[in-house]
Design a protein that fits this description.
The protein is an alpha+beta fold and 451 residues long. Helix content is 59%, strand content 13%. The chain has helices at 2-11, 18-31, 33-54, 57-63, 68-110, 194-199, 238-266, 288-293, 297-363, 370-394, 400-423, 431-445, and strands spanning 129-136, 142-150, 159-170, 176-189, 202-215. A five-stranded antiparallel β-sheet has the order 1-2-3-4-5, with no helix packed on it. A hairpin with a 5-residue loop joins strand 3 and strand 4. Helix 10 runs antiparallel to helix 11.
Length: 451
């Protein structure tokens, strides 16, 4: 739904065929599977163990001598297998899905809207033409009071056509719009050389029937070469990301070396010493103050202008290199984020299971009621932390490694604490116990009655 709400304005009204839309939405659905997997595991674990606790099945198994860890062991093995599947899916399948979905979405967003000529409104969707139809009949093909301005040569409206009626049809391959005009006039300015621009000769012709073809090939969906998208971080697996990050680090070192060499070559003041030599004074060099004091006002102003221009050039050079380095840092952070994301997905599945399973055993509520509320709240907290840290790392405000692992690592001690509480059958959500604890604290501070 997020995808639909984001791109619906750029997809609707473009006449995209159903098969292309099915592929695009199918790839988009597959893209969201890794993001939804931690929530699915969290929700299902709470529902499963909550249902076992609600039906006293956990109590029956514990009374037979099984600990909570032994009860969870088969599902823990399954979760580890599922986490391995998530890593394989994220590492090998997701790059292919991202490539297909991104290329289709790029082509769909760049496609032109479908041909839609409305009554009494100039339609400029066909490049080089302006078309106005006064009225369209019920059949959708018969049109009346037609005006056509032809300016495809880029010299203005050199050709103008007017007709009382006509027919709108498309060619068999839908690459051309065929407009048959009846009972009209055609006016054309004959501008072939400079003398024509001064005399403005015009050709006028009346016709009973004329057929005009408009090229509609630009309205067809054109597929872009997928190789243009392969260098994006989302389209790479772990080994490709590692190789690309090494390349970026080498480019950063080369950029720093080039900055030093170019700055030393073009902006080093020592290269200007020869211009400060005055042989008539029998002195090899002068201080800057003595040198400027011996110059006439015109030469002195020239020295100041040259120094100012050199300072501006130096500043512009450094600003350009700083921007280039900033882009390299952002690109490196993007690749590091995607590299760590391959592993944090699997780790988050394991961590959230150890949060959900003991939490369900403590809550003892199955079904789609309380488990859904609890799991959604916990996942929102996890998602907000992870998403915020990821954005901060992409903006250079946080280390990518710390940003991508902070969410699962923060939930890990919470899962361990819940597992310990569930193993001890702690009444974590028994409100009565909390009231008893508060009354005990209050009794400590309550003044004792005199004997």
């Amino acid at each position: 739904m997020i995808f639909v709400f984001t791109y619906i304005d750029e997809i609707a009204g473009k006449g995209i065929d159903g098969f292309t839309l099915v592929k695009m939405f199918g790839y988009t659905f597959l893209m969201f599977i890794p993001q939804s997997m931690p929530l699915a595991i969290l929700l299902s674990s709470i529902m499963t163990f909550g249902g076992l606790g609600e039906n006293y099945e956990l109590a029956a198994m514990k009374s037979s001598g099984l600990s909570l860890l032994k009860i969870m062991r088969p599902i823990v093995i399954f979760i580890f297998i599922l986490s391995g599947f998530c890593f394989a899916y994220s590492n090998y399948t997701m790059p292919y899905i991202h490539l297909k979905q991104s290329s289709i979405l790029y082509d769909v967003r760049g496609a032109k809207p479908t041909l839609n000529i409305k009554e009494s409104v100039f339609y400029n969707g066909i490049e080089g033409y302006s078309i106005r139809v006064g009225k369209k009949d019920v059949d959708g093909q018969t049109i009346r009071n037609i005006t056509i301005y032809d300016h495809h040569e880029g010299k203005g409206n050199l050709v103008q056509m007017y007709a009382d009626s006509g027919l709108l049809q498309t060619s068999g391959d839908k690459n051309a719009l065929v407009m048959t005009l009846f009972n009209g006039n055609r006016y054309q300015q004959m501008l072939e050389d400079n003398t024509d621009y001064q005399r403005r000769p015009m050709l006028s012709a009346a016709f009973q029937k004329q057929v005009v073809f408009f090229d509609l090939s630009g309205f067809q969906l054109k597929r872009t070469d997928e190789d243009l998208f392969r260098n994006n971080a989302e389209m790479m697996n772990v080994s490709q990301l590692t190789s690309y990050m090494d390349t970026i680090k080498k480019e950063k070192v080369e950029l720093a070396d080039n900055v030093y060499l170019n700055f030393d070559k073009y902006f080093n003041p020592r290269s200007m010493k020869a211009s400060n030599r005055i042989d008539s004074l029998n002195l090899p060099y002068l201080s800057i103050y003595d040198y400027i004091s011996r110059l006439d006002p015109v030469a002195k102003q020239q020295v100041f202008d040259n120094a100012l221009n050199q300072a501006r050039s130096c500043s512009a050079f450094l600003d350009g290199k700083m921007n280039e380095e900033k882009q390299q840092r952002e690109e490196e952070a993007k690749f590091e984020v995607n590299w760590h994301k391959k592993f944090t997905l699997s780790f988050a599945c394991i961590v959230l299971f150890f949060v959900g399973a003991p939490l369900g055993a403590i809550v003892r509520k199955g079904g789609l009621g309380m488990p859904v509320v609890i799991s959604v709240i916990l996942f929102i907290i996890y998602h907000v932390i992870s998403f915020t840290c990821e954005k901060m790392s992409l903006e250079g405000q946080m280390n990518p490694t710390l940003a991508m692992w902070i969410g699962p690592v923060l939930f890990l001690p919470f899962g361990i604490w819940l597992s310990i509480k569930a193993a001890k059958d702690s009444a974590l959500f028994d409100i009565g116990d909390y009231f008893k604890f508060i009354r005990k604290i209050g009794s400590v501070f309550k003044p004792k009655k005199a004997a």
